[in-house]
Amino acid sequence: MEEKKEPCGCAICTHALICPDPDPDDWFCDDDVKVICTAVKKNADGDLVSNNVITCACRPYNTVRETSYVPKWCPQDGQVTPRTL
């Protein structure tokens, strides 16, 4: 039996936003989603940067698996803010 793991990384972060990402030419995968990061960080020029795509064209049942890591460009330096119930 496979051991179940708790979601981690961007999958539990409050800054992860799941949006529809349908491909109008692909009728079979019209329920795809994309996950973007809404956290804001200043870049080297002092400009605010946000809405980085964590994953796109993701099947809804794979969302947690594909976002269970923290990307190198994380605006919070890898310190995810867990969701509370």
Q: Strands across the major sheet, in which order?
A: 1-2-5
Care to count the β-strands?
5
With helices defined by DSSP (H or I, 4 residues minimum), what is the helix count? Answer: 1
How would you classify the helix and strand content by structural class? mainly beta
Average pLDDT works out at: 83
Strand content: 15-25%
Percent of residues in helical segments? under 10%
Q: What is the global morphology?
A: flat
Protein traits:
three-stranded antiparallel β-sheet; 85 residues; single chain; two-stranded antiparallel sheet; 5 strands; mainly beta
Description:
The radius of gyration is 14 Å and the shape is flat. Helices cover 5% and strands 25% of the residues. It is mainly beta and 85 residues long. The model has no long low-confidence stretch (mean pLDDT 83). Strands 1-2-5 form a 3-stranded antiparallel β-sheet, with no helix packed on it. Strands 3-4 form a two-stranded antiparallel sheet.
